[in-house]
Amino acid sequence: MNTAELSKEQQILRVMRKTLGNVVRDVTPLGGRPNPLSGETIQDIKDCFALISERERELAEKLGFAEAKPYYKDGSIPNAQVLSFVKPDKE
Questions:
Q1: Which residues touch 29 (CB under 8 Å, ≥6 apart)?
Q2: Cβ(63)–Cβ(3) under 8 Å?
Q3: Whether pLDDT at 2 is above 70
Q4: Rounded to the nearest 5 degrees, what angle is found at the Cα of 47, between the Cα atoms of 41 and 49?
Q5: Distances (CA, A) of 23 to 27, 45, 47
Q6: Quick one: which of 11, 21, 29, 72 could link to 33 by a disulfide (CB 3.0–4.6 Å)?
Q7: Residue 36: is it exposed, middle or buried by C-beta count within 10 angstroms (0-12/13-18/19+)?
Q8: DSSP state of 30
Q9: What pLDDT score was predicted for residue 61?
């Protein structure tokens, strides 16, 4: 499998994830109304998201992308530091 094929598959997975997420968002009931989807359908949707994520991870490994680090097309490294916030005690 070459890089172009991987890229095409990644595009397909990205669009599938986005479309499935939009469908879920559109059918989610508001204000305590009953969900129009059955429990089985909800589980199937969760399984689809899990499979998409798993395949995206496999493709990232094939291309040598590190999972913990974002990929930037220009090759730049983000200049950021992690800050730790501590909630002050109430006096």
A1: 35, 36
A2: yes
A3: no
A4: 110
A5: 6, 10, 15
A6: 29
A7: exposed
A8: S
A9: 82
Alpha-carbon distance of 59 to 9, in angstroms, equals 9
Amino acid at 55: R
pLDDT in tens, 19-65: 999 999 999 888 888 889 898 999 999 999 999 999 988 888 887 76
**How crowded is residue 15: how many other Cβ atoms within 10 Å of its Cβ?**
10
Q: How far apart are the first and last CA of the chain?
A: 63
Encoding tokens for residue 81?
């530091």
Q: Which two tokens stand for residue 21?
A: 């997420």
The more confidently predicted of residues 24 and 91 is: 24
